[in-house]
Amino acid sequence: MAEVYRERYGREPRKAFRLINGRFRRVMAYRIGEAEVLRIAWYRYARTAALTVPNA
Question: What is the pTM of this model?
Answer without folding.
Answer: 0.68
